[in-house]
What does this fold into?
Amino acid sequence: MSETANPTGGPGEGGGAHSEQVRVQHVSARVPERVSRGAFSTGAIVMTGASEFILDFIQNLSTPPSVTARIVMPHVTLPQFIEALRKNLDIYRSRFGEPPGLPANPPPARQPTAQEIYDELKLADELLPGAYANGVMIGHTPSEFKFDFLTTLFPTSAVSARVFMSVPQVPRLLQSLQSTFQQFQQRVQQQQREAQQRQLPPPSIDVGGG
It folds into this structure.
């Protein structure tokens, strides 16, 4: 995967700004010590913001459930994440077979609101800003997946957050990502249609002549 960086600023001839196109090939990324151990997650909540998606990875092994990692991802990055995850699941299936399924839970009588969900979650202050990610590296073993979320900024890519999930949770994560992105696309298309309608000239009215 490659990205284009556009560094600007710095002294140039005649005192002008310096601008250049830089191609960065992501082969590896630095792993800061504070994120190297990663966080284990048993599920995820995916939300849409004005210019980003928020991925809150949840651990419900204790009471109350807690957010173990928060990822802030630009809109343009999420479809790349979805495609990478889909391909990794295909590779997993070719090596190990179909991922084990999760027990089916009865659907809730009423879908809780986001506020109601977060009222029941523990969210540490240090996780409130989230970790920015515009790339991701995915690996897996027979029993779990590893997600290294990246800040792919010139000149060095770095892992901003590392999350582990058990294999049975991963297809559900993919479904949540796909559903959220599909709803986002539908909303964008609706906004574009409304904008086009506002720009149309008013219909002409022929009142006829006597």
Q: What stands out?
A: The beta strands are 2-5, 22-25, 39-41, 43-48, 52-59, 66-74, 131-132, 135-140, 144-153, 156-166. The longest strand covers residues 156-166.
